[in-house]
């Protein structure tokens, strides 16, 4: 009976299935991306051949870690330690792959055989490189070809396959080549250790961390700070997909509720012949669960299809290997069924409350009472929408949630650009330079000698060397730390509220938010990376990222992050006579110094790879909302056409032309979508406020609302209205007057 009831309205049922399926597909595909990135990094930086991995303590990710090469020889002297192999890990931005992982391995170490050759041989000399199977396919390379990386030419000597997506989509070179490529002379990112007696692993781990307080040793599977960071990638996909599922779930509730409305007399008859309230609830809930279950299965299939299509794109293929697991499918299906329970509860409860006599008197499709609100709205499209207020409210809420999420995400993205522009343009900086091909600022490395070359140019008045790093301290799991030269211009923009600016090693000044979170003030000490720092100042610049961060001297930061003579960003102040030529000077610097990417400070944030990734994600969410929202509106308008079939027949009999009927339905669809946009803007502002309440990073999320954002939301609403109203309008216009008048 349940399947029969659903099939009585095939079009409505199929549209509802599509809405649920698209939402579930979003969960499957987006969580697969997050799991692919997190799982790939976890496997890449935890070699199965190693018993312990030793890296820099408090490094957010192992490829951000730096360990002195001399430590390797000392590690090997520890009783019980067998083999020690150093690895340099780097990430490069390339046109075919924005996050291209490069690993440097010791030619005599035990890790190099981990890369199973499928063609060629292992590297034996300088400027030779192994490339993964995915890299070979994407770049169309084979042994003997040349491979350009960071403006250096390497000879491909072999192709490997490990089964780890990021590794197979990256490259491997000898350790000394990687040290030159990523400017890590006499350093490695981390060490892999083999222990002779497995029973001594924990004792050796404790000894390492006791002898080197700034290092951390971890076993495979141990919870680390890197693991916490990777969990953010995993959660992000589910977070994005959840909104699509919620929109689809509200659409399903709408469908189930309309099914109850149009079957009011039928439900009255069933109650009259003895059906109990529990049986009525069971029937409606069964329909909702069947709808959600079928939508979930279809969504899993659609999600798998989307992932297979995405694998055809070289830039993301390495993130999507081995991410489709039974756990993912079970979670997606359970989520769909959970929505079925939630979406069917209110319609089932409403159906069970119908009194048999009143239900049998009801008209199945028409609305007998217009109500005071509808009379107040007159005869326009809003009046027609208000004839089914519950349906309209649920539709508006569902679409508003999707639109609101877009508003919140876009506002926070724009806010990040605004805040970062404020941050980078402080201290009278006209131009900013970062390492070319760096995928994000956190891994950018510029040699101080390059900064000196820029300083000696005739157009340059002064430079400011800036090192950015992320560490952790109790109370702030993600603590942004700036390293600045106290004698350079950039530090002068700090507005000190208590104490003074830093002057010597061992001192730190912290932002107001950081001071409050740490419950520290001037004269207190704070430990970072195993070292103690005296707080000499508290500043409040009004820039969220700075006010939640700390600042030490450049030399201190270089020591803390083990990046000697390296900086992340170079701020350039031009002489007054050259300030009008900033763009031309930026281009000239890039052409003369290939290691740099230079842009105006006000435009720097827009050109970051992080922003390109964020905007790509935002566009994907908008596309998803268009699909799901279009289905929801189409379903609502189609149900409106069904229940007003007789009314439309009367209009056609009175001489209304097809285009008038199409216009009426399309105008109602546009009114519904614009109303949803208004609600969505309000929800978006509220969501952004909720995000900002998150204790660890919420203070850094600044929302910026611009006219362009609101115009974009209105344009999105118009697109949704057109997509959602087109088919119902066509169907209404093609109703034959005589058949429509006879419609029950």
Give a structural overview.
The protein has 26 helices and 24 strands. With 744 residues, the protein is of the alpha+beta class. It folds into four domains: 1-46 and 235-364, no CATH class; 48-220, no CATH class; 371-425 and 605-744, no CATH class; 437-594, no CATH class. The strands form four sheets. Strands 1, 3, 4, 5, 6, 7, 8, 9, 11 and 12 form a ten-stranded mixed sheet that branches. Strands 13, 15, 16, 17, 18, 19, 20, 21, 23 and 24 form a ten-stranded mixed sheet that branches. Strand 7 (146-149) and strand 8 form a beta hairpin. The longest helix has 38 residues, at 225-262. The chain is elongated. The model is unreliable at 364-370 and 372-378 (pLDDT under 50).
Write the layout of secondary structure elements.
Layout: H1 2-7, H2 10-44, E1 52-56, E2 67-68, H3 70-76, E3 81-92, E4 100-105, E5 116-120, E6 128-132, H4 133-139, E7 146-149, E8 152-161, H5 165-168, E9 171-174, H6 175-181, E10 187-188, E11 190-195, H7 201-211, E12 215-218, H8 225-262, H9 264-272, H10 277-310, H11 314-317, H12 326-352, H13 356-361, H14 371-376, H15 381-386, H16 389-424, E13 431-435, E14 446-447, H17 448-455, E15 460-473, E16 476-484, E17 496-499, E18 507-511, H18 512-518, E19 525-528, E20 531-539, H19 544-547, E21 550-553, H20 554-560, E22 566-567, E23 569-574, H21 582-592, E24 596-600, H22 609-643, H23 645-653, H24 658-692, H25 707-733, H26 737-741
Parallel strand pairs: 4-9, 6-8, 16-21, 18-20
Antiparallel strand pairs: 1-11, 1-12, 2-10, 3-4, 3-11, 5-8, 6-9, 7-8, 13-23, 13-24, 14-22, 15-16, 15-23, 17-20, 18-21, 19-20
Helix pairs in contact: 2-8, 2-10, 2-12, 2-22, 8-10, 8-12, 8-16, 8-22, 10-12, 16-22, 16-24, 16-25, 22-24, 22-25, 24-25
